Amino acid sequence: MAVFDSKKKWVGAFMMVLLMFYFAAAAVSEISRNRNGGRDKLQSSSDSSMAARVAEDDQGFNKHAVEDPEEIASMVDMSIRNSTERRKLGYFSCGTGNPIDDCWRCDPNWHKNRKRLADCGIGFGRNAIGGRDGRFYVVTDPNDDDPVNPRAGTLRHAVIQNEPLWIVFKRDMVIQLKQELIMNSFKTIDGRGVNVHIANGGCITIQYVTNIIIHGLHIHDCKPTGNALVRSSPTHFGWRTMADGDAVSIFGSSHIWVDHNSLSNCADGLVDAVMGSTAITISNNHMTHHNEVMLLGHSDSYTRDKQMQVTIAYNHFGEGLIQRMPRCRHGYFHVVNNDYTHWEMYAIGGSGNPTINSQGNRYAAPTNPFAKEVTKRVETATTEWKNWNWRSEGDLLLNGAYFTPSGAGASASYARASSLGAKSSAMVGSITSGSGALPCRRGHPC
């Protein structure tokens, strides 16, 4: 019995030691979790402050427009930061991975903060501020009765003014322009919150001006116009020869951003940029039902277009498109994170030795076995184009699509054709899901 009692005492003592060890371990674990939590919170706060400082520095730097390709090439690293750190998002819950949209669309008060859009640009046209520094101009009249003496309240009267203006619309409207709409510098046309169509007449001409933002419009069925007098400023009007019928024509202009528009079925191109235009971003547009979609570069002989730099990002090239998405001459072109769901002849073409940097796009080839190639060198012998710098990096090629690269593979060769960090091609569906003019409602995220 004495031996049994002794064993009971030892077992009890052993159990007490186990219990003490258990509670001690639990306490240490809890302290560790609290310390880690505090460190995580501290790190988050530190990162937030650093991002805010970077944001302030970048916003100050971006007050100065880019003047030449060398400067843009040297700012590639800043461009990558520009797509993330300088954004004061604050609304991560609805983010899509699209740095433009995540910059402003999640804000339910976007209609009270419209000019924030001007700080959301990316790519070569990221410094386009439009009418950010001016007053709001409300278009109340859809008519275009007199292209020489436009009435106050019309879109034509707004865009020809000399001062910076952020142009918005009082209500839904269809604007049929008698002649091309010739824009003056430092203007934003902002169609958010209403349903605005520019259709069945002249369309937008951006000629020898700077700092233009075109956002949130439906532009379609544009017709050739001209052989008429048209006003281009409060103090000047002149004779215009025939315009081609582009949705957006960019001619000898810089710092241009064409974003979130629905473009289709025009007489010539949907977006054409020629005659020395540069510092352009074409983003988030939905393009459909058109033959020659986008021409970038005037002609093989016009060498001033060697300075051209264009970013084509987050667009959906959709139903009924045939070719030129884009068709490039000379210059430097960054084609990044676009969704190519339709083409009948080819997607990306060029001549005149352009540099084309295709990154993170999704190319879905048509069923036609003779139209699987993404690329086309237009009327150029292989011995010549084999030295052009065209590359595909991280692109998703579907349904037999293939991209024919050429030239140098080294990244340094594409410095002037790099304007932002590409996302994974697996994200293209999400990034481009809101392409085109958006159905924004006041008081709700857009």
UniProtKB/TrEMBL annotation:
Residue stretches making up the Pectate lyase domain: 172-369
Cofactor: how bound: Binds 1 Ca(2+) ion. Required for its activity.
Signal peptide: 1-26
Primary location class: secreted
UniProt-listed Gene3D superfamilies: Single-stranded right-handed beta-helix, Pectin lyase-like
Annotated GO biological process: pectin catabolic process
Protein name (record): Pectate lyase
Subcellular localization(s) per the UniProt record: Secreted, Cell wall
UniProt xrefs under InterPro entries: AmbAllergen, Pec_lyase, Pectin_lyas_fold, Pectin_lyase_fold/virulence, PEL
The reaction(s) this protein catalyses: Eliminative cleavage of (1->4)-alpha-D-galacturonan to give oligosaccharides with 4-deoxy-alpha-D-galact-4-enuronosyl groups at their non-reducing ends
Family: Belongs to the polysaccharide lyase 1 family.
Keyword Zinc: no
Pathway terms, separated by semicolons: Glycan metabolism; pectin degradation; 2-dehydro-3-deoxy-D-gluconate from pectin: step 2/5
Region Disordered: start-end pairs: 35-66
Obligatory cofactor(s): Ca(2+)
Enzyme Commission code: 4.2.2.2
Composition bias, Basic and acidic residues: 54-66
Molecular function GO terms recorded: metal ion binding; pectate lyase activity
Keywords: Calcium, Cell wall, Lyase, Metal-binding, Secreted, Signal
